[in-house]
Amino acid sequence: MKVTKAVIPAAGLGTRVLPATKSMPKEMLPIVDKPAIQYIVEEAVNSGITDILIITNRGKGLIEDHFDRAPELEAKLTGANKNEMFHQVVDISKLANIYFVRQKETKGLGHAVNCARSFVGNEPFAVLYGDDVIIGKDPACGQLIRAYEEFGMGVLGVKQVSEEAITKYSSLKVEKIRDNLFKCTDMIEKPSKDKIMSLYSILGRCVLTPDIFDILDNTAPGAGGEIQLTDAMCAMARTQGMIAVDYTGKRYDMGNKLGIIQAAVEVALEHSEIGKDFREYLKGMAAHL
Ligand code: UTP
């Protein structure tokens, strides 16, 4: 079955980026001139996704406004003959069929994904975490969808991380199939050092079958008292097996301050408008470090 639906959980409170995220959704933090969530929606669209459900929360109205039309702004840009900018603004509202649902209580990523049950119905679907921006020529979500089409089971987007970092993420038990593809049969969330299964961790993307919803209904709160998507995916990996794809592309963690600055610097260096000037500025700064 073709994967045409995606879910973007964006209802978290973003406490690691306070005070910036007190009233502003972290998913709207810009990387130079585009909010993080627009990169994510574009990745989904470039992967063949046509319908996207964004899980929001109170105070996340800015996300809805960003994907809506903006008549006053559009009129002003047309009047000023700023055609390129006009199209940039209007095209955002035409990227895909975008729907919104509120997660009424912030009970974790698994709970957020479970809010997508009626949108998803009986189809496989992609999940793109709202604070993980992945930039690369071949969209990461599309790489996972190809693996789903080949193997017909749930797919995890993974990367190798340091032993230090893995204790804050998940650790997967994997067996190589070929190249960057692995079979995953077990996993653990935030393992202590003696429980690490491998240095492969789920980072930012997965493709799931609708079986996940019944599993989530029976998943008890885990780490941090939240319903963890990893716990539900662990049950799926143990019973049905899952595929792990070590995707190509650079991932930026927009959920922490260092990740936000790294994304801004790297994207600015390649930016058509400011790249050259920023490079000179950065070289000047580096000379004094
Ligand atoms: P995080 O755990 O990084 O989000 O979840 P958070 O809770 O906003 O972060 P901190 O720890 O307080 O800084 C990863 C993704 O899942 C979403 C977040 O919006 C983020 O995109 N999420 C998390 C939800 O949609 N609902 C939740 O209850 C939790």
From TrEMBL:
- Tell me which Gene3D superfamilies the record gives: Spore Coat Polysaccharide Biosynthesis Protein SpsA, Chain A
- Kindly list the biological process annotations in GO that this record carries: UDP-alpha-D-glucose metabolic process
Pfam families linked to this entry: NTP_transferase
Keywords from UniProt, A to Z, are: Nucleotidyltransferase, Transferase
**GO molecular function terms attached to this record:** UTP:glucose-1-phosphate uridylyltransferase activity
Domain Nucleotidyl transferase residue range list:
5-266
Record family assignment: Belongs to the UDPGP type 2 family.
Task: Indicate what this protein is called per its UniProt record.
Answer: UTP--glucose-1-phosphate uridylyltransferase
